[in-house]
TrEMBL record:
It comes from Streptomyces ardesiacus. InterPro entries: AB_hydrolase_fold. The lineage of its organism: Bacteria, Bacillati, Actinomycetota, Actinomycetes, Kitasatosporales. It comes from the Bacteria. This is Serine peptidase.
Amino acid sequence: MAASKHAAAVGPVEITVPSYQGAYPKTATRFIRLGPDQVNDTPVDEEEEVFILEALAAYAPSAVAEEDDSPLAGHTLGLGRLTPRILRRAHAVDQVAGKGVTGRLLWLVREAHGYLRHEKTAAAVRSEICKALTATGARAVIAHSLGSVVFYDMLSRGEVPTERDGKVRVTTFITCGSPLSWLCVREGVHTPGAPLSVPPGVEWTNLHSPNDVVNRGVGLSHLAIGVTDVVAHNGGVAKAHDVHRYLAHEAVVERIAKVRPL
């Protein structure tokens, strides 16, 4: 914002970054992302295995037919605590979508499972966000990756702070690299078969990158009412989901510049 043409007109912008890291169990996936002090090496159970298999199948449907169903397949592929069935599907997805794709997806899929299928964890996550919104009086929310699912869920549940007239205080909702295009994620936070939508008075902008494996390179306008899709050319697969590249996009600056304090 400071480097943009809007800097003089807008002035200083205060940003609060609430963390819900502590709400999650210390799984092996978090070890991969956050370091050894964040892990207790919790294995994948049967219910989570089914969720992961469905998520990977939704990402690359044609990969399912390519799986190696031989007895030993998946037992020698590595990746720690993941099951042979997951490893077989992950390998098949990589064969179809590109080498290393599932390595970039699995942390998101496991964290999405933790939010969507464990209400205690989900409630703790939403509580942290709500506390920050209440304390700051924020009128704009930028939600990256799984954060877009969390805040959309809060809007749907009516858990976002409101004004005296009952309207949601947040007027600007910006999603970046959102996985809401996945049915397995979407069905956990809204009514199946209905389009995605936000309350009246909330302007929703969704940024998606063509090479972002999390949003599968597509926007949300075909699934949502009142959302404006913006293509963010963030570079190759390695950087396409990077939050800094999304935040640097002019569309984010323009939306934030329009927000006015109460």
